[in-house]
Automatic annotation (TrEMBL):
Pfam families: Sipho_tail (PF05709), SPP1_Dit (PF22768). This is Putative phage tail component, N-terminal domain-containing protein. Residues 46-144 form the Siphovirus-type tail component RIFT-related domain. Residues 440-500 form the Siphovirus-type tail component C-terminal domain. It comes from the Bacteria.
Length: 501
C-alpha cells in the first residue's frame, strides 16, 4: 500500500477553481491544502435534483389511482467528488484523518462557493478507492433530511408591535423571533394574518393581579468585595488564600501554602442573603479553563443561619494530566449528607473542557433541580440536569441564609483559570391555582425559534409555558404581517432565511 509515492505530482490548490466545499463553516479546499498536499473539489451533484412524494391510493371501480392534492418533498442527497493528495504516505494519512474529523456532526451547514445558499446536511459516506497512491479521487455523500436550500440570513425589523415581512423563496421559511421584555408580562404572543400564532403564558383577567413567582433577592455582578466576608469553613478541605475582583468577576488571587494532610484548598468568601429563603433558585455564571492547566474547582455553597451546608454545587477538573470537567452537587451536613449527582458533559466527556457557562440549584418543597450548561455564542449547549427527591422525608429542607463562593485546587498542582461572573438568587413564591404568574420581567429575552422548534427565556427551555393552540408557524411566500401582544411590552427583532426547493 505504501510502496508508491509520487513526488512529481503536486496537489493543485483548489482556491484557483470555481467551486469549493464548505461544511460546518470550514472550507475544505483551503484548510486541507498547503505546500505538502491538497484537497480539491472536482464536481458536486444532487443540488438540482427534486423528489416529490406523491400520495396515491386505489379506488374500487376507478381506472388508475386517486392522487392526493398534497404531496411532500423527499430527502436530498448531495455527492461531492474530490481529489486529495500529499507528498508522503504519512502526510496523506494525516490529511485523510483530518478530513474525517471535519465531517463530524449532524445537520450542519453545507455550502459551495458557486452558490449563495446553504443546505443542512449530515455525512452519509466518505469513500476512497484502494489506497495505492498518495493522490486519490474520492466521494463525499451528504444526506439532507431537510431537502430545502436556504439563502443568506435576513433580519426582521419591527416598528413598535408590528412588522411586514416579504419573502420571495419558492418554499416556506422558518423564522426566529427575539423579544426583549420591557415590562413584567404574564404572556407573550406573536401572530400573523393567517390566525397562526406562537404564545407562552396566559393573559391575566382585568379583575386579577398578576403575581410574581420568582422574586430576585440577590444579583451580584462580582465587581466589588464589599459586602463579602472571609469564609471560615469548607467541606472536605481547607480555606486558604485570597479572592480578588477584576471589576467583572471574582477570581482566586492565591491558594495558600499546602496543608497536611493534603486536601482541596483555596480562598472563599461568604455573603448574607437579605432574608432566609425556603424555596429558591440560585444561578451562577462561571468559567473554568482547564485545558493544559492543572486542577481547579469553582464552588457555590448555600448555608443556613448557623453556617451549615444546605447544598453546594461545583464545576471541577480533578484529574492531574487529563483534561476533564465534572459537575457535582452535595446536599446536607449531617449523617444524611450525599452527592445525588456527579456528572460530565453529554456525548463526549471533553465537551465541558474550558467551561464557560451556568450551574443552577433550585428547591421547591422537597424537590431539587440540578442544572449545568456550557454557553457557546450565547446559547446553552451540552446541558445536564436532574430532578431529585430525597429518600428520607424532611431532610435537606433547611432555609438558606447565606451564599459562599470558593475556588480550590489540589496542593502542589497548577491551578486552572477560574472566575465567577454573576450570582443570582430568587425566592420562589407559592401560587394558588387561579393566580396568574409573571413569566418574564424587564431585561429578559424570549426566543421563539420556529426553525429548531425551541422556546427559550434567557437561553433556558420554556416549552412548559407554551399555549396548547400555539404553533411554530412559517413565513409564507409573499407578504407576512406580524403583530406582538401585549402591546408596548417588547423590543422585537428576528431573522430568517428564504428557502427554495
Amino acid at each position: 500500500m505504501y510502496g508508491f509515492v509520487n513526488l512529481t505530482e503536486r496537489g493543485t490548490s483548489s482556491t484557483s477553481l470555481s467551486i469549493q466545499t464548505v461544511f460546518n463553516g470550514i472550507n475544505f479546499d483551503s484548510v486541507l491544502s498547503d505546500d505538502e498536499g491538497s484537497f480539491t473539489t472536482l464536481t458536486v451533484s444532487g443540488r438540482a435534483n427534486l423528489t416529490n412524494r406523491i400520495n396515491m391510493f386505489e379506488v374500487p371501480g376507478m381506472d388508475g389511482l386517486m392522487e392526493s392534492n398534497e404531496h411532500s418533498t423527499g430527502e436530498r442527497e448531495i455527492t461531492v467528488k474530490y481529489k486529495i493528495s500529499d507528498k508522503t504516505n504519512e502526510g496523506f494519512r494525516r490529511r485523510t484523518t483530518l478530513l474525517n474529523s471535519l465531517l463530524d456532526g449532524s445537520k450542519k451547514e453545507l455550502s459551495f462557493t458557486d452558490e449563495d445558499v446553504v443546505y443542512y446536511a449530515s455525512l452519509s459516506v466518505n469513500e476512497l478507492p484502494e489506497e495505492n497512491s498518495n493522490s486519490l479521487i474520492g466521494t463525499l455523500t451528504f444526506l439532507c433530511s431537510d431537502p430545502k436550500k436556504y439563502g443568506p440570513e435576513k433580519p426582521i425589523f419591527f416598528a413598535g408591535d408590528s412588522a411586514v415581512i416579504n419573502t420571495s423563496g419558492s418554499a416556506e421559511s422558518n423564522p426566529v423571533f427575539e423579544l426583549e421584555v420591557l415590562a413584567p408580562i404574564t404572556f407573550a404572543m406573536i401572530q400573523n394574518q393567517f390566525d397562526e400564532y406562537m404564545m407562552i403564558g396566559r393573559p391575566a383577567p382585568v379583575e386579577s393581579t398578576p403575581k410574581e413567582e420568582y422574586t430576585l433577592i440577590l444579583a451580584d455582578l462580582m465587581n466589588t468585595l464589599t459586602g463579602w466576608a472571609a469564609a471560615t469553613t469548607v467541606t472536605n478541605g481547607y480555606i486558604r488564600g485570597e479572592i480578588e475582583t477584576d471589576g467583572g468577576s471574582f477570581r482566586p488571587k492565591s491558594f495558600g501554602t499546602a496543608v497536611a494532610p493534603e486536601k482541596w484548598q483555596g480562598p472563599g468568601l461568604v455573603k448574607s442573603l437579605p432574608e432566609e429563603v425556603q424555596d429558591f433558585e440560585m444561578d451562577c455564571i462561571l468559567r473554568n479553563n482547564n485545558v493544559d492547566w492543572g486542577t481547579g474547582m469553582v464552588e457555590v455553597y448555600l448555608l443556613d443561619a448557623l453556617d451549615r451546608q444546605v447544598a453546594r454545587i461545583h464545576m471541577s477538573d480533578s484529574f492531574q494530566g487529563s483534561d476533564r470537567i465534572h459537575g457535582r452537587v452535595q446536599l446536607g451536613y449531617d449523617e444524611y449528607q450525599r452527592f445525588p449527582i456527579n456528572t460530565a458533559a453529554p456525548g463526549n466527556i471533553k465537551n465541558w473542557n474550558n467551561f464557560y457557562g451556568l450551574m443552577k440549584l433550585q428547591r421547591r418543597g422537597n424537590r431539587w433541580w440540578f442544572y449545568f450548561a456550557k454557553i457557546v455564542n450565547g446559547k446553552r449547549v451540552y446541558v445536564q440536569q436532574q430532578h431529585y427527591i430525597p429518600p428520607v422525608e424532611g431532610i435537606f429542607e433547611d432555609k438558606i441564609a447565606k451564599i459562599q463562593v470558593v475556588f480550590r485546587k489540589w496542593p502542589n498542582t497548577e491551578a486552572t483559570r477560574m472566575n465567577i461572573y454573576n450570582l443570582k438568587v430568587w425566592r420562589i413564591n407559592s401560587l394558588k391555582e387561579d393566580e396568574i404568574p409573571i413569566i418574564a420581567d424587564v431585561g429578559d429575552k424570549i426566543t421563539f425559534d420556529h426553525k429548531n422548534e425551541e422556546i427559550l427565556i434567557n437561553g433556558e427551555d420554556a416549552k412548559s409555558y407554551k399555549d396548547f393552540g400555539a404553533s411554530y408557524f412559517t413565513l409564507k411566500k409573499g407578504e407576512n404581517q406580524m403583530i406582538v401582544h401585549p402591546s408596548n411590552s417588547f423590543n422585537v427583532s428576528g431573522i430568517y432565511r428564504e428557502s427554495y426547493k
